[in-house]
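Appendix C: a fully annotated inverse folding record. The material below is reproduced so that readers can follow the format used throughout the book. The structure is listed first as tokens, followed by the designed sequence.
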């Protein structure tokens, strides 16, 4: 049970779908993301950096979101962890398990077209820009159903265990 809970709360991707490829200052930048398609709410984004055919593991990487489309007219439920546009989030090497990918979980505040700035600080500071299209957020129950079911599942398992123990004591 504890393994399942930990898996639900911590599971991250080793990339997801390739969203875009860019080249800046001789560094090839590969952007991965999930869920597919990207939605308002939490998104797992990862970047693979390559220069001259070898991985760049000595860079400092950050993500910034900039809204390109008009604000969404309908109030959308995006969930916790959503960013204010322009706030930088550091990407950590090996965060999702893949030791070659810089990744972070970003909160996309609303649906629409966003520009993702990937700030790379290696020998010098560079920024790669990607356009992201975020669809409407999933319903809260569709997003958080594993956590919502944890309490009833725990109560049910406790009752089942108590019943088994009481039968053993009668025998």
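Designed amino acids, in order:
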């Amino acid at each position: 049970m504890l393994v399942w809970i930990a898996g639900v709360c911590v599971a991250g991707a080793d990339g997801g779908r390739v969203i875009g490829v860019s080249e800046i200052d001789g560094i090839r930048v590969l952007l991965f993301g999930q869920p597919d398609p990207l939605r308002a709410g939490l998104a797992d984004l990862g970047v693979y950096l390559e220069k001259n055919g070898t991985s760049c593991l000595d860079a400092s990487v950050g993500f910034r979101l900039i809204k390109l489309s008009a604000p969404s007219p309908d109030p959308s439920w995006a969930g916790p962890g959503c960013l204010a546009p322009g706030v930088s989030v550091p990407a950590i090497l090996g965060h999702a398990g893949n030791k070659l990918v810089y990744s972070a979980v970003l909160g996309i505040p609303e649906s629409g077209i966003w520009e993702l700035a990937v700030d790379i600080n290696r020998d010098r500071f560079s920024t790669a820009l990607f356009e992201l299209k975020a669809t409407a957020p999933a319903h809260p129950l569709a997003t958080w159903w594993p956590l919502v079911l944890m309490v009833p599942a725990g109560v049910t398992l406790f009752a089942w265990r108590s019943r088994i123990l009481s039968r053993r004591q009668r025998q």
